[in-house]
Fold each of these.
Amino acid sequence: MAEIESYLQKGFSNLTTKEEDHLEELSKAVEAWELKEFPMPMQPSFQDILIYIMQFKRYSQSELSEDLSISKSLLSEILNGKKQPNLNIVVSLHQKFGIDANVLLESVSH
C-alpha cells in the first residue's frame, strides 16, 4: 500500500512505463487480496457491511460500538435502519477495518 501511495503522490503523468506497470501489478494484487479477505456482496448496504465486520471479527454489537467509539444504542439504530451513520462513523470504518471508502459512501447513499 505504501508503494501505491508513493506512485499516487508522484502523479500518474509523472510515472515511467516501468512504474505504471508495477502500479498495475500492485493494484491487481490488492484487489485479489480484498476479494479473498473481504468478500462482500455487490453494492452492500451499510448494515451489510457492519454485519460482515461483526461476523468476520467475531464481534458483538458492544465490541463494534466500542471500536467505532459510538453508543450501543446508536449502533443498534443504524443496524435496524432507523438512523444513518455520520461521516465520523464512515471514516472510522474505513480507517480501522480497511473497508474501501467508495464502498462505504455508496452504501450510505442507498
Note: The chain has two domains: 2-37, 46-108.
Amino acid sequence: MIHHNQKVVVSNLRISLMPAMGMDGGVRPTGLNETASTVSAAALEDACDGLARTKPHLSAKRRLYWTQLLAIAVLIAGLVWAARQAPGVTFGAAYFVLFVLFGAAILIRLVAAASLSPTLSRLAAPERFPTYTILCPLYREANVAHDLVTALSRLDYPTAALDIRLLVEADDIDTIAAAQSAAAEKPHIEVVIIPPCAPRTKPKALNVGLAEARGSFVCVYDAEDRPHPQQLRAALAAFEQGGERLACVQAPLSIDNAGASWISRQFAAEYAIQFREMLPLLARLELPLPLGGTSNHFQTDVLRQVGGWDPYNVTEDADLGYRLARAGYRSDVIGPPTMEEAPVTLNAWLKQRTRWIKGHLQTWLVLMRDPVGCARQMGLAAFISMQLVFATGLVAAFAHGPLALILLTALLSPYDLLTASDFVLAISGYCVAIFAALTACALSGSLSHAWAAPTMPLYWPLASIAAYCALFELFFRPHYWSKTAHGISARPSLVS
C-alpha cells in the first residue's frame, strides 16, 4: 500500500518505492535530472478519481445509469409494439425524424462551409506577461520528445513566464530519458514522472499537471505538436477581450503530412472542415464546442472549478467542452494553428477512430443522464446544437457503412428501393462535404483537401467499422486508451 505522505518516483530510471527519504518526508530520486519531479500519492489519487468523487454525475467512470437502461428498454419495447400495431405509421415517423435530423446536420455544414471567413486574431502585448502553463503528456514518445521541445522553444512568449511540464509515465523509461535530455538546461521545463496506475489515460496525466500548474492560463500540446509561435499571445488577447465567461479558446489543428497516404489526406481534409469551418461557426453563435484534444487554452481557475479533465473519458476534450457549457462558460477559436501528424495507415487510423467514437459515446451518455437538467444548464439552443452536431455525427458514424451499401444496392437494382428524396438527401450530403473540403483549401492554404474531396464517399464507410468496434469496447474495455504512434512519416524539419 502507498501511504499518502510518500512519493512514487523513478530511481536510476527504474521504478522504485523505497529510496532514501528526504528532510521533507518525500522521496529523493538518485538518478533523475534536476528537471524531473515526482507526484505525491494524494495528488495521483485526486487526478484519477477527483471528478468521479466530487461530481460523479459528470464522470464517465460509470458507463450507464439504471435510469438510462430503463429508458432504452422502454424505447425499444415501445418501438417494437408500435411497429407491430401500425408498421406503416411507425416506420414513416422514424423515417421523417431521421430525414429531418440528417437534413439539418447537412444544412449546418453547408452554412459553415459557405461562410469563408478566416479566423483572425490580434496578439497580446502586455507590459507584464502572465505565467502560462503548458502541459505535454508523453507516452512512448521518445522519438519525438526533442522535436516537441524544439517546437515549444519557438513560442513568441517570454521564457521567464513559461511553466512547461512534460508529463511522463514512470514505466516509460525511454521517454523519461529523452524528455530529460531535451529539457536539460531549460529551467522553465519540468519533467513530471507519473506512477503507472489505472486508468492509463492522457486526461489522468493532464490532471496531475494541472494540480501544480503555476500559470494563470494553461494549454495542452500533444507530443507531435508544432504550435504557431504566436499562438499563446493570440490566446491571451482573446481572453483579454472575451470577458469572464470565456473559459477556453481552441486553436485550429492542421496536418503537415497529408501527402503521406490516402488516409492522411482524408484525415487532413476532415480536420480542415472541423477546425476551419464547423468550430468557428459554433463559436460565432456562442454554442458549445466539442474541443480538440490539443491546442486548447484555458483559464486555470475555471478549469479547476469544473473538475479538470475526466480521466475515464477517452475523448476528454469533447467532454470538457460541453462540461464548460453546462457550468455557464463559453469557448472561442483563434487563428494561429498547430501542425500535427495524421495516421498514415488504415490500422493506425482505425484504432484512433475507435477510441474517438467510444469517447464520444461516453460523452453523450454522460450528457443524457439528465437531459432536462443538461438542457437547463447549457441552454436549450446549446442542447439542440449538441444533438445536431455531436449526436448526429455519432449516428452518422454507425450509419455510413450500411447506407453506402443500401445506396449501391438501390443504384444497381431494377426495383425502386429508395425514393427520390432519399437520393436527394444522400447526394446533398456528399456534395456539401465535398464543397466543405474545397472551401477549406482557401481557409487552410492547402490544396491537399481538394485532392481528398472526390474520394470522401469511400472514406466515410470506414467510420462504421470503427463505430462498431467502439461499441464493443464501450462495454468490455470502456477506459482502454489505444495509443497512436507518432514520428512515423516524414514531416517538415524543425530548426531550433
Note: The CA atoms of residues 163 and 429 lie 45 Å apart.
Amino acid sequence: MKIWMINHYATPPEWGSSTRHYTLAKELKKYGHEVTVIASSSQHLLKSKPPQGTHSLGIWQDKHVKFLLLPSPDYQGNGIRRLWNMLYFAGQVLQLPKQINEQPDVIIGSSVHPFAVWAAEHLAARYQIPFCFEVRDLWPQTLIDMKAIRKYHPLTLILSKLEAYLYRKAHLIITLLPYAYEYISKFNIPPSKIAYLPNGVDLNLFPTVALPQEPQEQNSFIE
C-alpha cells in the first residue's frame, strides 16, 4: 500500500527533532508499505535548510522513507508570516498532483495546524481514496486553553467549523492524546472511529548500556 503522511513540521532525523512520522514510516515499511512523508522546506523545527533551498520541491530519501519537502516562505516567531507559511504549505499540498506523477492508496493528514489537514482531506477526495486525521493538538481548544485566542473570536469559530468538518470526513481519527476521545465524541463521532497511537521510543536510536547494579547491602550502621 502507498501511504502519504502530510505533516507540515515533520523532519528526517538528521535535519530536525520532529521524527514521529519518519519512525512510523520506517515501521510500516517492515509490513510492505511504501510511505512518503510530505513536509515543509521552511519551518522552525529544521536544524538546517534543505540543500535545494526553500523555493523548489525537494526530496530526501533513505532505504526506509521518502520525504517530499514542499517550498514554503520563511518566517520568524508566531506572527502573520508564520500564518502565511501555514496557508502557503496547504496550497502547495493541493498542487501535488501537478508536480508528481504518483497516486497514494491512503492519505494521513496530521496537525499541528488544521489547514494542512484540510488540504490532505481535499487531496484524498480528489484521488477518491481514504483520508485519516491524526490529531496532535486540539484546535482551537488548545489555543483557547493557552489564552492565545478568545472562545468567541471569529478565528475560533472558523477553526471550530473546520475541526468538525475534518472529524466528519475522516475514515479514521488517530490521536496521540489518551483521553482525546472524550473531546472528539462531542462531535457525534463514534468511539470505533478513534484510534489512540501515542509516541513510542525507537530503541535503535540509543546505544546499548549496561543496567545499573543493585547497591550492596551494608551490615553496619555508620554515623
Note: The helical segments are 20-29, 80-94, 96-99, 114-127, 141-145, 154-169, 180-184.
